[in-house]
Amino acid sequence: MDMRQNNLAETKSQDAARRPIEVITAEIWLYKQQAGSAILEIGSRLNEAKGQLSHGEWLPWLEEKVEFSEATAQRFMRLAREYENPSLVTDLGASKALQLLALPASEREEFLAEKHDVNGQEKTVTEMSKRELAQAIRDRDEARKAAETARADAAAAEQARSKMEADMRLVNAALASARAEKERADQESTRLERELAELKARPVEVAVESVCDPEAIARARAEAVAEMQAKLDKAKEAKEKADDKRRQAEASMEILKKSMEEREKAERKAALSTDKEVAQFEVLFLQGQELANKMKGYLIKARGREDRTAAQGMEKALKALAEAIGRCAE
Q1: Residues 6+ apart with CB under 8 A from 45
Q2: Comparing C-alpha atoms, which of 233, 134, 232 is closest to residue 192?
Q3: I want to staple 127 with a disulfide (CB 3.0 to 4.6 A). Which of 101, 123, 211, 277 is the partner?
Q4: Contact 295/200 with Cβ under 8 angstroms?
Q5: Residue 94: count of CB within 10 angstroms of its CB
Q6: Are the beta carbons of 288 and 324 closer than 8 angstroms?
């Protein structure tokens, strides 16, 4: 019985000595922050020391005097060079501060100031784990590459469209010219056919000694008919060439029209990735989600009050807003 009481008392004593996990976590973060600040100070002095030592003295000094590997020293030195504001490294810790060096210096502060989507939750860099930060940086790089690709594709599409429009103008001009040429050839052929028919129907006046010589008259008529027939044959040949040119121009026009239609279909299909309005919609949608989360937080606080009047008003307003947004999709 005494042994059981002693064991129970010892267990209670151990439980009382245990500190809350929240306290332990907070202390760890405190020392991590202190370590981050110390790293910058160390890095600054490493930079100073390297400026004084020759190349052959640097590595032995690192190993023997301060017991740092070259890789560790380089990380500390880079942090000291890259971060003018020590509080950033202090707040983030060395690991995440090093990860942020993957971003251009001009973009780090903006990246730090923004919230980023992490598995459906909005988090700042400070709130992220090391793994989440690495993923956020990868997502940013992929989104930027996708945007650059989309811009390049849009520029190429615009260039192709401009060329097609120029080709269309040339084909239109060629088609108009071919049709005009065809019409002139038709008119010339018709005129010559009419004149040939008239020539065959009337006698031909010839300068012969005896106008009553039937052979001379027949010979003159045959020569005139042959000459007119030759002109008509040339006119028909020109008509066929003009008609062939017109058909080629019309065929080119049809091919170009089909190409433009196919390009327009492809552009409409790719509109989600290149349309500025779609991109703006996505930005507004994300902002709307953030506002909705904030309003939900205020509603939860209002529901905790004894007087539920404010909460009821918020609920009514949110339902009305949801219905209005739903109507936008109709």
Answers
A1: none
A2: 232
A3: 123
A4: no
A5: 20
A6: no
SS3 149: helix
122-139 burial string, b = 16+ CB within 10 Å, else e?
A: ebebeebeeebbeebbee
Tokens coding 262 = 């196919």
Residue 162's alpha-carbon distances to 58, 174, 175, 256, 258, in angstroms, are 61, 18, 20, 13, 16
Q: How far is CA 38 from the centre of its chain?
A: 42
Angular region, 120: left φ>0, alpha ψ -120 to 50, beta rest: left
What number of other Cβ atoms are within 10 A of residue 249's Cβ?
20
Whether the predicted pLDDT of 258 surpasses 70:
yes
116, two tokens: 């980023």
271: enclosing H helix or E strand: helix 271-274
Q: Is the pTM of this model over 0.90?
A: no
Please report how many Cα atoms fall inside a 13 Å half-sphere around the Cα of residue 287, on the Cβ side.
6
| C-beta neighbour count of 16 within 10 angstroms | 7
Contact 299, 314 (CB under 8 A): yes
Contacting residues for 299 by C-beta, under 8 A, at least 6 apart: 311, 314, 315, 318
Q: Tens of pLDDT along 10-39?
A: 555 555 568 888 888 888 877 776 777 788
Instruction: Note the pLDDT tens digit of each residue in 182-193.
Output: 888 888 888 888
Domain boundaries, the chain: 1-101, 168-273, 276-328
